[in-house]
Structure formats: structure tokens, C-alpha cells
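Exercise 7. Predict the joint structure of the components listed below.
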Amino acid sequence: MTRRIVLAGVGWLVALAFLLPYLQMFITALKPERELTASPGTYLPSHWTWSNFIDVWSAAPVWTYMRVSLTVAAVATVVTLACAMPAAYYTARNRFRGRGAFLLLVLVTQMFAPTALVIGIYREMVALDLTDTLLSLILVNAAFNLPFCIWILHGYFSSIPRELEEAAFLDGAGRVGALTRITLPISMPGVVTAVVYTFIASWNEYIVALTVTASPDRRPLTVAIPSFVTQYQAHWQYLFATSLIAIVPVVILFIFIERYLIGGLTAGSVK
Amino acid sequence: MRDLKTGRRRAATSQAPRPSLPRRAGRALTPLLWLGPSLALISVVVLWPVIEMVRTSLQDITSSGVTVGYRGAGNYRDLFDEDGLIPVVLRTLLWVGGIVAVTMALSLALGQLLNARFPGRRAVRWAVVVPWAASVLMTALIWKWMLDNYSGLVNRVLLDLHLIDEPVNWLAHPAEAMLWMMWVAVFVSLPFTSFVILAGLQTIPSEVYEAARVDGAGPLRTYVGITLPLLRPAILIASIINVINVFNSFPIIWAMTGGGPGHDTDTTTTFMYKMAFYDQNVGESGAMAVVNFVLILVMVLMYLRAARWREEVR
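Solution:
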């Protein structure tokens, strides 16, 4: 019993340590602007300026930034999944020439990060005349998250016995029916992991968006947020208000799938 | 199922022992139908930039972006002549090694904690997930603000505890800035890593632990003798992914110090970025990118060798 109390104490301290920076974000977002230059800084706002969360929408086109981030992340996720599912399913179910080469390619591309390739990506987008477009961001996010998704889904599909599908097929479900009614529901944790992983990685992507986009109405949140604090202005309260607006939905999404996530990661690491 | 179908079709059309050429070609092409979209996406968006990058590193490109021609190894020679290069590379190795080592050590403990039973465990897991869900850039910005010279929380707390006499401008001194940024990198790497460890812990059957208890093994012996060896796949995966991520981590340094003062807190990625987009030295930056990639490859291979990966692959 004492063991559990000690564990709970340590656990709650750890939770606090992880939340502290975001708590600080929240507190800063609620400070009036003149208090931000006070030295030394204040622990709590002298005046809880809730209006910051309303004013920020008119201080900058936050809604546009959000729309850009959301479009890029959502479309990239759909594209990634549409490409990854057939590839993962086919390689899990069939032996064919080139299968090994394909899986090796997937493994190797997992080692490439957009950061390392940003110059190549930029020059390619210039060549394709795709700079400053959402399409370029969608393509990059979809492609760089694809290997991880194929890998996770491949692990899941392989772990489902073929006999299960065949039984459904013989019962008259058809090949597509067997896939949608048997295989997909069982591999749901893997699919959810892949979706969330891609969505969050795209939502948070920074370096390519920083390099490729230029117009204010094509900038995602990550690129737009730092411009609240420049040489000429220091609206830290708006910067963090916008950050929280961007973070909270994703955290809720994450909490929602936390249980799936552990299963998804197990499949990925064991396979 | 597959044989049944093709068999039936074959019997209906011809008695030939071998399928006709078009059909064989068709069968060879079926994989392309399933793998095609993935192959196309990977080739166009991942492999093309790789080739483009290598080509860039061999080209002579003016500061206004016009390609004049090829200059062979010239960009690489220029790069290796940079005074800043050696310190930047050494700093990058220290950055990767330090962050991954600390992250792994803390994650092993954290995974154990998240796996133990105590009231409120779910809420603690949710809290640990937050830095993973938040963008690294935003997390770096809040740390930058907390470390602010005048109004930052860190200075305020240290002043109130009388640990310092006057505010310290943490991010202006390279050594202090480096340590703080490494801490932020550990902070954002912990959630993913500890969840992989947690997932690994949950694959260990409880019978193994019971057997150890029956044999009279203490907690430390059980951990070293049973838990750690069984966690090996999870530890391997987590550290490789961390090495790649930390090596490529750009937003933390970019947001907190911009690699400055001078090049004093640059790693290879920020060094490369400044070279291309600030100094307009695209060819040399391409060379840096290639060197950077080779460095990652060498580090991962060395790690795999040290961890005797082959045994894992079987």
C-alpha cells in the first residue's frame, strides 16, 4: 500500500514536470502586454486578461493559419493512408519478386528526414513550380510519413491469420468484404496509430513549410506563430494563446487514442 | 483461394501447361498495382530530392541561384576549409550522443513508472504525452520565454531561491545555451521513447516475473536479468529513431538561439540551413547536406553494430 502511495506521488510529480511549460504558456497567454516586460517576471498575471484569447484572432489571421495547417495535415494523412494500406496489405499477404527490395526501400527511406533533404526538396519544388503551394507541403508530409505507416500496417496485417479472412471469403463475404469486415477492424489500432502519427507529424512540420512557403495565406501555424515576436514587436501573450489553440485539439486527439497507441507501437517494435 | 480461382480460369480457356505470356506479364505487374502509389510517392518526393541534393553539391551555383556548371569536388573542398566545420561537427556528435543517452536512461525509468499500478496512472500517462502532441517549435518557444533574461520564470525562481544574484542571460552564452537546448530536446523526446519502452514492457508475460520470484530473485536482479534483455528490441528501435530525429532536430536550435552567437551553437543542420538560405551558398550547403547524411548513416550503422543487430534479425 505504501508502495502505491509513493508511486502515485512520484507519478504526479512527473506529470507536473511535463505540464509545467504548458502551464507557463497558459499563464503567459493571460498576462496583459505591459506585464510581459516586467523584470523580474511575475508568477501569475496581475490581471487575468482572458480577452487575449479573443483579441488574438484579429491581431493576426489565425483562422487562415489554422485552415492551412488543417488542410495540409488532413489531406496528407488521407494520401498517406491511401498509399500505405494497399502496399502494406499486399506485402503482408503475398510473396512475390521484389518484395524484399520494396521492404528494404521502405526501411531505408525511414532514415531520410525532411530536414536533411530540405535543399533538395526546395530545388525540386522550384523545378516543378510548386513553391508557395499547399500541394508541395501535402506531398512532402505524405511521402515522409509513408514508410512508418507501411511498416506499422505491414506488422498488423501480417499478424492476422490468413485463415480468418478465408473463412469470411468462403462464407460469401467476397474479397473486399473479408477485407473490410475482418482484416480492417482487427487492425484498427494499427490504422489509428498510422493516422494519428501522420496527422500530428504534418500538423507540427516546420522546416519545409518555413522554406517553401512565402505568402501569409499559405503559412501553417508553426511558421506563422514566431512572427508574433520580432525585432519590432513582442506579443508573447498572442504567441502563446495561438500555440495553445493549436496544441489543445491535438492533445485531446492524442489522449483519445492513447490506449491504441501502446498496442500500435508494440506491433511496430516487435515485428 | 488464389490457386482455386486461377486454376478454374485456366481450365476454361486453354489446356496449356504454362500460362500465356500476357497472363504471366499480368501476374508480374499485379504487385505494381498495389505498391505503385507508394513507389511513386517515395520516388518523386523522397528520392528525387536525394539525387537533387547530390547534384547540387557538385554544381557551381551563383548566389542569385543560377547554375553555371559543374565544379566537381570544389564545394566539398570549400566546406572542409570552413573554420567553423570541425567545431560544428563535434558539437553535433555531442548533441546527438548526450541527448539520446539521457533520453534512453530517463525513458527506462519513466516506462517502468507508467507501467506500475497506482491511482491516477492514466492521467499521468496523458500528461507525459503532451510534449509529443505539441509542436516542437512551440515547446522550444515556451522554453525560450522561460529562459528570458528579464522576465523569464527560470531567472525569477533562481533569484527567489537566492541561487543567483542577478538575472542570467542563459541563451547568450554558448555553453549554457547548449545545455538548455539539449534539455529541451530530451524533454520532447521523452514521451515517444518512454511509450515505446512501455509498449515493450507490456509484451513481457507476467509468468516470467512469477518464475523469477519463485526462484528468489530480487528486484534488481529481475530487472537486469529479465526485463532489460527482453526490452532489447524496444530499446534498439527507440534509440535508432531517436538518433535520426535528434540529428535532424532543427526547430529547437532555430527558435532558441538561431545557432548563434556566430556559429557557436550551430549543429550541422542549422549550419547547412544558414549556408543555403542566408549566405546564398547553395552548392556548399548541398555538400554539407551530403556529409550530414553520411554522418547519420555512419552513426546508425555503428550503433547497430554495437548492439549486434544481426542477432535480432535472425
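Discussion. Chain A has one domain: 60-229+245-270.
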